[in-house]
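Reply to dn_fold:

You asked what the input looked like. This is it:
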Amino acid sequence: MPPELSDEHVAAICRVLVDHGVEFVIIGGMAARLRDTGHATIDIDICPSTDEANLSNLAAALQELGARLRVEGDPYGVPFDPHPDMLRQVAMMTLITEHGPLDLCFAPAGFPDGYASLNKRASIIVVNAVDLPVASLQDVVTSKRAAGRPKDIVALPPLEAHLRRN
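and this is what came back:
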């Protein structure tokens, strides 16, 4: 299993997104980790806004990050052109960047309207002087429960226990 993504790598990826004006929310395991649950993860999942200007900003940020499609067995990934029109047509992308793995999920499980819903309950967590918009832990739990994948089901008890304590 690859090593956990460091705070420095998370901040480096998000700094580029923020500098390009990308509207996004960190979701999934990284959101849980940033909320001090002890959850470990090897990548950063984001849910970007799908409005036209944001997709253009996202495309520019992905180019700056040197984003490539993540493919099993190829540690460098496959080059692609992150054009806004292409981004508009996908539901999810798994990428590798110069700073580590980045997954885009435009409509996470349990949140069919994606960013619009998740952003309402997200809050800012500062990591290495970068303001990171992070999904609420309740939304992370809701999404993991809706996804129902084995890795999500295993993650639920400690996340739900953390919710009850806080």
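Residues 125 and 132 are 5 Å apart (CA to CA).
Hope that clears it up.
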